[in-house]
Amino acid sequence: ILYSYFRSSCSWRVRIALALKGISYDLVPVNLVKDGGQQFSAEFKALNPMQQVPALKIDGITLSQSLAIIHYLEETRPNPRLLPQDPKKRAQVRMIADHIVSGIQPLQNLSVLKQVGDKKTEWAQNCIASGFQALEQILQHTAGHYCVGDEVSMADLCLVPQVANAERFKVDMAPYPTITRINKALLELEAFKVSHPSRQPDTPAELRA
């Protein structure tokens, strides 16, 4: 059972991993905006004390934090692999994933933007742009068809949702041709299409694909 919000980039990462590995699941929507945020309910807090999505019930345990979930899926259901066998490439994948999930996404997520107030769009644009400047530089050394070489990896699962965030906040993508190229290639893949925010059970009608 995946507890998810259609627009959550962290949830999207996990949905891509589940789709790539062919793992079927039931989706329970948790609306981060409605009712003051359904993640703050006592019921959901019991499930995930951090009151964030995603949370995944699998194999008799409940996991939160998208990368922890993806690592568990990788260790228990290794095909297709999302971490390269080569230690150097594997380290690069983890570096890029961490760059996004620690260095960019948390700075522009819903809880932070609420604190920022009126200048939230400008704040989000600045956080994403500074992160993307570094990421573009890194990818010029690591990229093949995708973020690291020619195999889809955990890094790619983090990249696509972050680019969607950038587009939502109207970040100018022109300075990031490598990011743009990789994102476009990944969005052609079926796992990225079925997990897209525009195609979720809880996607509002006006945002559906």
TrEMBL record:
Keywords: Cytoplasm, Isomerase, Phenylalanine catabolism, Transferase, Tyrosine catabolism. Pathway: Amino-acid degradation; L-phenylalanine degradation; acetoacetate and fumarate from L-phenylalanine: step 5/6. Its EC number is 2.5.1.18, 5.2.1.2. This is Maleylacetoacetate isomerase. It is found in: Cytoplasm. Residues 1-81 form the GST N-terminal domain. It comes from Sapayoa aenigma. Its cofactor is glutathione. PANTHER family: MALEYLACETOACETATE ISOMERASE. It holds the Pfam family GST_N_2. CDD domains: GST_C_Zeta, GST_N_Zeta. The gene is Gstz1.
